[in-house]
Specification:
The chain is an alpha/beta fold. It has helices spanning 20-29, 44-61, 91-98, 111-119, 144-157, 175-179, 190-193, 198-208, and strands spanning 8-11, 34-37, 64-68, 81-84, 103-108, 124-127, 164-166, 185-188. The protein is globular. Its EC number is 2.5.1.3.
Length: 210
């Protein structure tokens, strides 16, 4: 089942200046159509409190809500999909557990990883890190523009139709050269939610990806 995947994914994080709910509200008010709720510090009750509030915001603005990991919460809130950060996750089993209607995203640091998760049926992939980021610690080698160019060329040669999003330290000036590699889109967190004006920062990315 082919899913709609947005080109610009906004990822919420634990930051002191804005709650996850506030981040989602600001991004949606700016026109966001894809919110990935990423919180690995709360218990299920707290997670569901956040998710239910963000789901209402997303519903009001027509945005897709994706939750990072926590697939055990499927069916307990209005969640459209899950992004699994475990590089070794078995996506065949996860698909069996979640069903065809749920959007499933996977993460990869390597080209071989992209090929594997594509074969296992993910709907899209976050591929990175592009550059140094403090948002999500990652010891994998930085891909840089060349890493995306190589990966997209190989996927094309193998006729693998997988929406790939660059993630990890992406800034506004990186958008054009990254999109020129043939990737599908961009996943952004710190460059937006740690900006002085979150709404303006989101709009800058959105306009760049038009």
């Amino acid at each position: 089942m082919k899913k709609f995947i947005e080109k610009l994914h906004f990822i919420t994080h634990d930051i002191p200046q804005h709650t996850h709910i506030e981040q989602a509200q600001i991004a949606c008010h700016a026109g966001a159509k894809w919110i990935q709720y990423r919180c690995l510090t709360k218990n299920d009750e707290e997670l569901l409190e956040d998710i239910n509030a963000i789901a209402e915001i997303c519903d009001d603005w027509g945005a897709t809500l994706i939750v990072t990991d926590h697939i055990h919460l499927n069916g307990k809130a209005d969640i459209q999909g899950f992004h699994i950060e475990d590089m070794d996750a078995d996506f065949i089993k996860i698909r069996e557990q979640l069903g065809e209607a749920i959007t499933i995203g996977g993460s990869s640091n390597t080209l071989n990883g992209l090929i594997r998760i594509a074969a296992e049926g993910v709907d899209y992939a976050g591929f990175g890190p592009f550059y140094t980021t403090t948002t999500k610690p990652n010891n994998a080698p930085l891909l840089g523009i060349t890493g995306y160019q190589t990966a997209m060329q190989v996927l094309k040669e193998k006729s693998i139709d997988l929406p790939v999003l660059a993630v990890g330290g992406v800034t506004l000036s990186d958008v054009d050269p990254l999109m020129a590699t043939g990737i599908f889109g961009i996943a952004v967190s710190a460059a937006i939610n740690q900006a002085e004006d979150m709404r303006a920062a989101y709009l800058d990315f959105y306009d760049q990806l038009k």
